[in-house]
Write a structure and sequence with these properties.
396 residues, alpha/beta, seven-stranded mixed sheet, five-stranded mixed sheet
Length: 396
C-alpha cells in the first residue's frame, strides 16, 4: 500500500498571453474544486465599472466569499499624469485572504495574477512563496512576458503549466481522489457492516460496497456505527489498512447505487480492434526480468513497467483503488488512455478528471446474498452472483 506522509511543495505558474484561448481556465478549475467540497482560497482580479458601464478601476476578489477590494480607482489627475491610483493599504488588506488560507491549510490557493508588484518582490509575492513552502497547492497566473522573472522568483521550484483545464487536472495531486470521493458521500446511516475473512462489506440506503479485507481479521477494533460519510473519510487514512478498507467499501456503497443504469459491456474490451500499445496490469512481455519476480505484486510490476515503457492504453485492476496504489499508477502512466475494471471500481465520474477514461465496476443487486458470501469467506470477486456490471466512459 502506498503511504502519503508529507505534503511536498506544489507551486504552479499558469502561463497566459494575450491570445490564450481559455483565459478563464484557472478560475473555472478553482470553481469546480470548490463545488466538489475542496477548501479553495485566493484572489482574482476583475475590472470595475460604474452604473453607466464605464471602467473605473480594478478590484481584487476573495474567491472564497466574493468580497471585493477596490485596489485601484484612478482619479482624473491620475489619468492625466498616467498613474494608476493604486491603494497599497487595500492590497495589504487583500493579502490577509492569503495569510488566512495558509493558517487554515487550504486545499488550493489561487492568485491571479503575478503582476508588476509581485515581479518586483512586493504585492503578494511573500504570501505566494509562504503558501507553497507550507505544502499548500498554489496556482498563480503568470503572464508569458514575465516568465524569466517568475523563474528567478521561484528558483524554478514549481511547475510551468499551460492555461487549460487538462493541464491543471494533470497537476492536481492524484492522491486527492480518495478525499474527493469521500467528502461527497451522503451523510446518512450505515445499514450494515459485514467483516469476513477475505472481504469487508458496507451497505447504505442506496447501495452496497465490498473490498478486500487487508488483514484477514473478522474481529475489528474499529467503530462501525458511524454515518456512511464518516466511514468513507477513513479511505484517506493510508497508514491504517482497516480504516482505509472500510472507507473504500463505504465509497463504493455510495457511488455504485443499486438503481444505477449504464452499459453492461466489459471495460476489458475497450481497446479491442484498435492498433495501440496496451498494457494489462499483470501481463508482461516475457523478456522482462521482473515479469518472473514473484516477490513483487502484479501492480508493483505494472508500476515498474510503466516507468520503463510508454503505452497508448493501460488496463488496471480495481483492487489498485482498494490497496492505495491507483494514484501512483495514474501519476506514472502519463497520457495513456486508462481503464479501471473490476468489483472495486467506484462508478464516480469525478475520477475521469484524475486520469481515468473508463470505469467498469460492479453493482450489488442482492445485498442479502452479498452479506452471506462475505460472511462465508468470499472475496470481492466471489460476489458475481449477487451483482451486475456497469461501464462508464469519459465523454469527448
Amino acid at each position: 500500500m502506498s503511504i502519503q506522509t508529507t505534503r511536498p511543495t506544489r507551486l504552479g505558474g499558469v502561463l497566459y498571453a494575450a491570445n490564450t484561448p481559455e483565459r478563464n481556465a484557472l478560475l473555472d478549475f478553482a470553481k469546480i474544486l470548490q463545488d466538489r467540497g475542496w477548501h479553495v482560497a485566493g484572489l482574482t482580479q476583475e475590472l470595475a465599472y460604474d452604473d453607466k458601464g464605464e471602467k473605473i478601476g480594478l478590484d481584487a476578489i476573495d474567491i472564497k466569499n466574493g468580497d471585493h477590494y477596490p485596489l485601484a480607482r484612478p482619479s482624473k489627475e491620475d489619468r492625466e499624469n498616467n498613474t494608476c491610483g493604486f491603494d497599497v493599504s487595500l492590497l495589504c488588506e487583500a493579502s490577509s485572504v492569503l495569510r488566512r488560507a495558509i493558517e487554515e491549510k487550504a486545499d488550493l490557493l489561487v492568485v491571479e495574477k503575478f503582476g508588476e508588484r509581485e515581479q518586483d518582490g512586493n504585492g503578494l509575492a511573500e504570501e505566494i512563496i509562504a503558501a507553497a513552502l507550507a505544502g499548500i497547492p498554489t496556482l498563480v497566473a503568470v503572464p508569458a512576458s514575465a516568465l524569466e522573472i517568475w523563474n528567478d522568483f521561484t528558483g524554478r521550484l514549481g511547475a510551468l503549466l499551460p492555461h487549460d483545464q487538462e493541464a491543471l487536472w494533470q497537476w492536481w495531486p492524484k492522491w486527492n481522489l480518495y478525499q474527493e470521493l469521500a467528502q461527497n458521500v451522503d451523510d446518512t446511516p450505515v445499514l450494515h457492516v459485514e467483516v469476513g475473512e477475505n472481504a469487508i462489506l458496507v451497505a447504505g440506503a442506496h447501495g452496497c460496497g465490498v473490498t478486500a479485507n487487508p488483514l484477514g481479521k473478522t474481529a475489528l477494533d474499529h467503530p462501525l456505527h458511524q454515518s456512511l460519510k464518516s466511514l468513507a473519510l477513513g479511505a484517506t487514512q493510508m497508514h491504517n489498512p482497516i480504516e482505509h478498507a472500510i472507507g473504500v467499501a463505504a465509497i463504493l456503497a455510495h457511488y455504485n447505487r443499486s438503481d444505477m443504469t449504464g452499459s453492461d459491456h466489459s471495460g476489458l474490451t475497450h481497446f479491442q480492434g484498435r492498433d495501440e500499445r496496451v498494457l494489462i496490469a499483470g501481463h508482461f512481455p516475457p523478456n522482462k526480468d521482473y515479469s518472473n519476480d514473484f516477490t513483487m505484486l502484479p501492480t508493483e510490476r505494472a508500476l515498474q513497467h510503466l516507468i520503463e515503457n510508454a503505452y497508448d492504453g493501460v488496463i488496471l485492476p480495481s483492487h489498485t483503488f482498494g490497496d492505495g496504489l491507483l494514484p501512483t499508477l495514474l501519476e506514472t502512466k502519463g497520457l495513456a488512455e486508462t481503464v479501471l475494471v473490476g468489483p472495486e471500481t467506484p462508478l464516480a465520474p469525478a475520477l475521469f478528471d484524475y486520469g481515468l477514461n473508463v470505469l467498469s465496476g460492479r453493482i450489488i443487486v442482492d445485498t442479502e446474498k452479498a452479506i452471506e458470501i462475505v460472511k462465508n469467506g468470499g472475496t470481492p470477486k466471489d460476489l458475481k452472483p449477487a451483482s451486475r456490471y456497469i461501464t462508464l466512459e469519459k465523454e469527448g
